[in-house]
Amino acid sequence: MKMLVRKGKNNTTRCLLLTTLLFIFCAVGAISLFFSCENHWIIKLTEHMVCEVCGNANIRCICGSEEPAAELTHITADYTGTETIYTFTILDSLKDDLTVRAFFDNDTNRNVDAEDYTLSTPTGSLTAPSSIVTVTYGEKTATFTVEVSDLTIIENPAPITSAAITVTPPLWNASPDATSPDATASVAGNFSVGDITWTRTDGEPMDDLFQIGINYTAMMTLTANVDHVFHEDFTATINGGAAAVANNTGATVTVSRSFETDEANVIGISIKTQPEKALNSYIHGDTFDLSGIEVTISYADSSTKDVTLDDFGDISITVSLPNGTTLSRSDHNNTLVSVERGDYKADVGTLTVAQAAGDFGSPFEIDFTFITFIAGSTLSDITLPPGYEWVAPDTILTAGENQTFEAEYTDPSGNYNPVIGYITVNLTLYIHDYTVTFDANSGDTEAAPSSITADHNSTIEPPLTEPTKTGSGFYGWYKEPDCINRWDFAVDKVTGDMTLYASWVENTIVVTVNIEDIISGDPQFDRFTISRTGAGHEDKVTVSVNEGDYDPGSIGWSIAGVGAHAGTAITGTGGQFILDANDQRYNSLGNHILSLEVKIDGITYQTNIHFTIIE
Predict the structure, then answer these.
(1) pTM across the whole model
(2) Which end of the chain is less crowded, N or C, counting CB atoms within 10 A of the terminal residue's CB?
(3) Structural domains present in the chain
């Protein structure tokens, strides 16, 4: 602050006294005193008591006279920060690199302390790509603009551990190529590569054209994608050689490698020394090894240069089959291997990859059951897994366990030699000895025959003579005494000893249609009647045929439906059909027709049975 002591008659004593005090303070370093003009002494107090540039507007003359307050006219803001600013950067952190200065109407100015001013933006936060920041001090404002990076914070970004970069190496009399090179990485597509900066390795100024015998360094910056980060142990290669890694920030990293300029324009390439491992000495699964190979590069000036494998990358020599490839007979046998430099190529030779030793696999057993044993059955009757074949397929089989037979395994890929091994066979032979018994199930007479023998997994024919039971009609053969699941002679097969049970329907009349009647189409019986109430007539009638007279599965029955079932045929199969006067699907009062269709030796026959339903 400034304090003014005005000279004048009325203040002489007071000013003399003050002057004395001021000199005392000045002597001990508390204040500094200097003369400003004819009218005022200007006193500057140290230790923040009074400052000549503070601009404080509330100053009163200690000698009794009052001076007008110094007014704040404007402020300035000068931001000098160089660190990257992000959308999530705390606004007040900008104060570290910000200078705010206040100016007053008495021609004074001063720096404003950070705690005395505030920062704000139109949105309340920093936004990309730039933000205008407003500084407010007193009632005055100033603005400055900062560039803002829209960086997304990714939790647990994927690490990039390595990269392989390919550049065009320096060629004599060629211009340096700054184009972004090709690159691959430990995870494809997880970073981008900046343009190449070429420098002379010896530190001399860079040449406009690459010069003979000079080493040049290619340097470029890699930038990780937002969801990746360069690992702290990140490594890189350039043209197959180790690159120097520097300035790894996680988000970016610098890589570089030095190259020697080719001495002249290349006009040819040839093989000087073959690889130590002969191209015809590989087997499936080996690693391709070019160690020891040496080529000769020929130049337009008649000079030559011998290049070993380790230096191939330095002058862009490539191999058609990369060194270190794991060889597969199916993929690489008879492959022509060559080296190339630009438009020039030299053949190393044809690669031969032999089959590896075969692997028969873990010993295994086959449990085999002959459904139908034929005398003289052989090993060829037992199917093996893909790739396996019996060595002696004509070997005659006998029943028994733990029988061992030779087999040969050939890998389908062709990468392995055939190999002989042994397979254990546990053999069971089934003979035609299943017994099927026909149980009359409380009937008065038995079926004839009452039992038969059957082959494994075969169908059977019903007995020629059906059983009978007084007061009941026979209704077919079932798999259980309760007659739940009917045996279908055309479909069901015998897999062991078994019994079939007769099914009976009580209080019915049995009408049998003979084969002769079916063939002639003229059943030898009159129309019959069934009654809904059973008054004077039975309410059920069983119409049957002898199933053995007809082709298996060919018997079909059909009645036209009535009422809600009009237009629908009520059908049945098998040797009999029970007509029921109380079956609402077809029981309208009046005349009806039961249609029967069968096949005999493939020829279809059809006949109609007429009946009447009464109340």
Answers:
(1) 0.34
(2) C
(3) 3-70 (no CATH), 73-147 (no CATH), 158-260 (no CATH), 266-354 (2.60.40), 365-429 (no CATH), 434-506 (2.60.40.4270), 510-614 (2.60.40)
